[in-house]
Amino acid sequence: MAEPPPTSVLLPTTAWTDACDEVADQLRPGDELLVICDSESDPVARRDAVPDGVRIVVAGDPEGCSGKANAIAAGMEAAAHDRIVWTDDDFHHPPDWLATLHAEYERHGPATELPFFVGRDPLSTLLEPMYVLSGTLGVYLADQAWGGSVVFERSDLDVAAFLADLRRTVSDDGLLGEYLDVTPVLRTRTVPVGGSIRESLERHVRWIKIVRYHDPPGFAVTSVVATLVAVAAVLFPLPAAVLLTLAYLGCNAVVGRRRWTPLLAYPMTLVQVPLLAYALARRTFVWGGRRYRWRGKFDVSVVE
Hints:
By secondary structure, the protein is an alpha/beta fold. It has helices spanning about 20-25, 65-80, 95-110, 120-125, 130-140, 160-165, 170-180, 195-215, 215-235, 235-255, 265-280, and strands at about 5-10, 30-35, 55-60, 85, 110-120, 150-155, 185-195, 285, 290-295, 300. Strands 3-2-1-4-6-5-7 form a seven-stranded mixed sheet, sandwiched between helices. Strands 8-9-10 form a three-stranded antiparallel sheet, with helices on one face. α8 crosses α9 (about 215-235) and α9 crosses α11 (about 265-280). The longest helix is centred in the last third of the chain and has 20 residues, at about 215-235. It is globular and about 60 Å long. The model has no long low-confidence stretch (mean pLDDT about 95).
């Protein structure tokens, strides 16, 4: 296999985390890691020394988009190379992570790994079966990109148009999926989520809005199906509990992960409809310390 070309890895974060060290250790000569923060006051921007090949990029405060979208756009503009890798700071990057992504690109072209979200509070734990179905298996079956681990080259998409749209929306990978033909690889990375019920509610609102604005027909179908399944679960609790548990155990088996949380499939099914209504009723949500009002795919306001 030919040596991969020099690569720019984009990692948005406000603080130097273990992920920064893990990725920096995997850089080859000529590669670069762009650690992208919001402002000069962020802890990572004041770091005295960084490893070879690492640059700190200050994106500035977002206007009309999310902080994450703004950071990715700034990183794309600052990146020196044509091959681009996006990643996040909230999961473990094993020593072969970057090399494995390069190998997937050589096999498939643009490629993405999959997230496997593990809850850290009662609500996010309860919702784990839904995360597996929609956030892991759904991403795989729909050929969507996950911004935590995706590789592509500039020639694979219309970069100028993509960056223009990125600076007026919320979801970086939601938008990337509309510009990039990507092959998901059935390999997961564990991403801890939540920490408090409030944080999990805010994330749920954001994720519901991502699906609503980036895939309206799919959102409508999913909402109807979820409601009908919840009604059936109320009318026929025992068979529903058995079938739902087996179904979500099957989802975990497909993605190659073992967890006890499929046992929560029945109560999760009952709460997902009121949680859907709650997400649709919410006018704003908090992400990364900022409050956003997201009225349409390209209609975003930073409230505070």
